[in-house]
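Below is a filled-in request sheet from our internal design queue. Each sheet records the structural input a requester submitted and the sequence that came back. We keep these sheets so that new team members can see what a complete request looks like end to end.

REQUESTER: design group, bay 2
PRIORITY: normal
MODE: inverse folding
CHAIN LENGTH: 350
BACKBONE (tokenized):
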């Protein structure tokens, strides 16, 4: 996952390390001029001069080099940071996220003191790790959220047509059921041909109850009935599927607003494709601005070598990533763990 970005970050890391080491030029002690010999005092033997070949001088130089601290300058990293910036932008990392990463790496490197012999690579990896963790945010622990909120926890899924929203609802249903939660699915996509049948097939395979009306029914009514069913049967979670829509379609967005008023969801989750890159970030921002969003799920992360959307989205829209879809099977969904992603991108710091 994100193999292309991982390779590019490795190259950027090597360039940063090389640039810092190139600025570490240690003075050539062999060219040091010897201290001037003191003038002899009349009546006394002249003092023995201290020369670069004298044991005392060599020992003093060794101590000086051992104790000396090197300081990373802006000049040491300027060109390498410019290359890192291009690497991130070419990997579809959004400009605000790119700027934040570059600023953080610069802050954590420029002016940094280190001893001669201390690992430059460890210094660079630490700066990159800190920057990426800041941008990725903390993720969203859905299990903990459910455990600490009143039941049923009502989750409304929104997103663009064709991004895998309905399959994501099924995957999260399977994930929650495996974790011991009781779940009901509401078939709120009543307009797309075959949508009700699609989610019904998923629910049957998973052994999860589904509430559905006929095609063309009011999705608000379907989801209201789903919440009522969950409440009366003391279920833990309501997963509400909805029709895919674009943020610039006023009537569809208005309908989504009605669904929210009727259903009163605890969480609104936006679903998009990781492979959409900056388009996913832009759409998520617009959806959040129009109807609100509490968390994001990115599908097809296994097909995305660039990783730009995953890196950008939490920082850019201020909403955490909840899951990454990584395949077609029901188990192919991963809770988003920023530290795990950073480890993969930086090869665990190796």
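RETURNED SEQUENCE:
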């Amino acid at each position: 996952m994100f193999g292309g970005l991982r390779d590019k970050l490795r190259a950027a890391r090597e360039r940063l390390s090389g640039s810092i080491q190139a600025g570490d030029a240690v003075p050539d002690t062999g060219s040091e001029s010897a201290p001037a010999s003191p003038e002899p005092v009349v009546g006394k033997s002249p003092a023995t001069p201290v020369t670069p070949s004298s044991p005392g001088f060599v020992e003093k130089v060794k101590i000086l080099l051992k104790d000396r601290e090197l300081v990373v300058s802006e000049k040491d990293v300027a060109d390498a940071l410019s290359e890192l910036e291009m690497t991130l932008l070419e990997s579809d990392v959004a400009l605000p996220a790119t700027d934040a990463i570059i600023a953080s790496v610069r802050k954590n490197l420029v002016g940094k003191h280190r001893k001669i012999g201390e690992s430059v690579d460890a210094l660079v990896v630490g700066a990159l790790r800190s920057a990426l963790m800041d941008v990725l945010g903390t993720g969203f622990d859905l299990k903990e959220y459910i455990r600490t909120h009143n039941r049923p926890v009502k989750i409304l899924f929104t997103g663009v047509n064709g991004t895998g929203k309905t399959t994501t609802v099924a995957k999260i249903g399977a994930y929650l059921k495996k974790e011991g939660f009781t779940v009901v699915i509401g078939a709120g996509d009543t307009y797309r041909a075959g949508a009700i049948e699609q989610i019904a097939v998923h629910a049957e395979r998973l052994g999860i109850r589904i509430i559905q009306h006929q095609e063309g029914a009011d999705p608000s009514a379907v989801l209201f009935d789903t919440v009522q069913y969950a409440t009366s049967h003391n279920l833990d979670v309501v997963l509400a599927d909805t029709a895919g829509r674009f943020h610039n379609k006023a009537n569809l967005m208005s309908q989504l607003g009605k669904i929210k008023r009727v259903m009163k969801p605890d969480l609104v989750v936006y679903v998009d494709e990781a492979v959409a890159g900056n388009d996913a970030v832009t759409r998520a921002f617009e959806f959040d601005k129009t109807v609100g969003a509490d968390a994001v799920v990115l599908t097809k992360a296994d097909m995305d070598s660039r990783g730009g959307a995953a890196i950008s989205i939490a920082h850019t829209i201020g909403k955490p990533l909840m899951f990454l879809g990584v395949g077609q099977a029901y188990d192919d969904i991963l809770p988003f763990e920023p530290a795990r992603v950073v480890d993969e991108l930086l090869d665990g710091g190796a």
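SHEET NOTES:
- The longest strand covers residues 153-159.
- Confidence is low (pLDDT under 50) at residues 26-37, 60-66.
FILED BY: M.R.
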